[in-house]
C-alpha cells in the first residue's frame, strides 16, 4: 500500500477531474497536459482517478439535475454527477478564453449548481465532506480570475477548499505557444510544477481529514433543521 512520508495511506480515496477543454477526444488538450501532472501524484498514492471531458458528452443546459424531465431529449449530466458524488476530490480544469473560463467550464459549474438542493444522509447539502481544486491553462492573462470563479463556486456549493487549491500555466502575453507546444517551457516550469504539487497534496491531506472525520459536523448547517425552526444559536424566541 502506498503511503506518504508520515505513513498515511490515501488508497481508499477517489478523485474526479473534469477537463473543461473545448476540444473533443482524441484531440490533444493542453489542459490535459497539466492535469497529468496532478493525476500522476494522485495515482502514485493509490487514489482511483477518473478524468472526463464534458465536451465529449451530450450535457443539456439547465438548472435541474436531469433536464430530460424538462423538455430535453437527452442529458448525460446525471452520469457525470454520479461520478462526482462517488469521489472525495473534484478538480475542475480548463483553458482561458478572453480572460475568462471556457463555456464548458461555465456549463459544468451551472450543472453542479443544478444539483445543489440535494441533501446527504445528515441533512446537509450533498457536496459537503468533499474537497475541490482547479487547474487553469492558457497563453493569455486571466488564470487567477478563472481560479477565483471556480473556487468560489465550489465552496458556495458545499465543497471544502484547502490552502493553495489552484495552479496554472500561462505563456507570454500575446499569441504564442500553449502548454504542450514545443518550446513553451510549460512542462518544465518550476513555479507551475510546484503549485500543482502543493495543490494536489493539499487536496489529499484535506480529503483524508474529512473522510476520517465522517465529513463536516452536522450541526448548524442542516437545511431541514432550519426549516423546522431550529436556529443553531441565532437568536430565535420561537426556537423548537
Beta-strand content bin: 5-15%
Order of helices and strands: EHEHEEHEHEHH
Secondary structural class: alpha/beta
Task: Characterize the biggest β-sheet.
Answer: 6 strands, mixed
What are the segments in which pLDDT stays under 50 over at least 5 consecutive residues? none
- Gyration radius, rounded: 19 Å
Oligomer: single chain
Shape: globular
Could you estimate the helical fraction of the residues in percent? 25-40%
- Mean pLDDT across all residues, rounded? 93
- Enumerate how many helices there are, as a single number: 6
The end-to-end span amounts to: 49 Å
Number of strands: 6
Describe this structure as you would to a colleague.
With 240 residues, this protein is an alpha/beta fold. Helix content is 33%, strand content 15%. The chain is built from six helices and six strands. Strands 1, 2, 3, 4, 5 and 6 form a six-stranded mixed sheet that branches. Helix 1 (30-44) crosses helix 5 (190-213). The model has no long low-confidence stretch (mean pLDDT 93).
Amino acid at each position: 500500500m502506498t503511503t506518504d512520508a508520515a505513513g498515511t495511506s490515501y488508497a481508499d480515496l477517489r478523485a474526479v477531474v473534469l477537463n473543461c477543454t473545448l476540444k473533443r477526444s482524441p484531440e490533444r488538450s493542453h489542459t490535459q497536459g497539466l492535469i497529468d501532472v496532478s493525476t500522476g501524484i494522485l495515482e502514485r498514492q493509490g487514489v482511483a482517478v477518473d478524468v472526463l471531458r464534458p465536451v465529449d458528452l451530450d450535457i443539456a443546459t439547465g438548472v435541474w439535475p436531469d433536464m430530460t424531465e424538462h423538455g430535453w431529449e437527452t442529458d448525460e449530466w446525471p452520469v457525470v454527477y454520479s461520478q462526482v458524488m462517488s469521489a472525495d476530490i473534484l478538480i475542475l480544469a480548463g483553458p482561458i478564453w478572453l480572460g475568462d473560463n471556457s463555456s464548458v467550464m461555465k456549463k459544468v459549474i451551472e450543472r453542479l449548481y443544478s444539483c445543489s438542493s440535494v441533501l446527504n444522509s445528515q441533512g446537509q447539502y450533498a457536496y459537503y465532506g468533499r474537497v475541490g481544486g482547479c487547474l487553469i491553462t492558457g497563453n493569455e492573462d486571466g488564470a487567477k480570475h478563472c481560479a477565483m470563479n471556480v473556487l468560489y463556486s465550489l465552496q458556495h456549493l458545499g465543497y471544502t477548499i484547502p490552502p493553495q487549491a489552484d495552479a496554472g500555466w500561462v505563456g507570454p502575453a500575446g499569441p504564442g505557444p500553449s502548454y504542450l507546444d514545443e518550446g513553451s517551457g510549460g512542462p518544465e516550469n518550476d513555479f507551475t510544477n510546484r503549485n500543482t504539487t502543493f495543490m494536489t497534496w493539499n487536496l489529499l491531506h484535506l480529503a483524508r481529514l474529512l473522510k476520517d472525520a465522517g465529513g463536516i459536523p452536522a450541526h448548524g448547517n442542516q437545511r431541514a433543521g432550519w426549516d423546522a425552526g431550529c436556529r443553531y444559536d441565532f437568536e430565535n424566541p420561537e426556537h423548537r
